[in-house]
Specification:
Layout lengths: L3 H19 L5 H10 L2 H4 L22 H12 L1
């Protein structure tokens, strides 16, 4: 069974790791400051982790299979 607390923390961890790797700083003190601010323990006490917010998207409408699309394209090309 899915634990919503554990799931939320994993999402936040992934988000924080994304922030740290996507926006690297050449300035070491600035990078260290960002690591400190984006620490999960620090983040728990900020509005960034006020939830959990989980949004489930609906399923996409099913379309034709890849084979059917290829056959359709082949028949219209001749």
């Amino acid at each position: 069974m899915l634990n919503p607390i554990t799931y939320t923390e994993q999402i936040v961890r992934d988000f924080l790791r994304y922030q740290l790797t996507t926006y690297p700083f050449a300035d070491k003190p600035l990078h260290d400051q960002m690591r400190d601010l984006l620490n999960l323990e620090v983040t728990r006490n900020t509005p960034l982790l006020k939830g959990p917010y989980i949004k489930l998207s609906g399923a996409f409408k099913r379309g034709a299979t890849l084979d059917a699309l290829v056959r359709e394209k082949s028949s219209t090309a001749t």
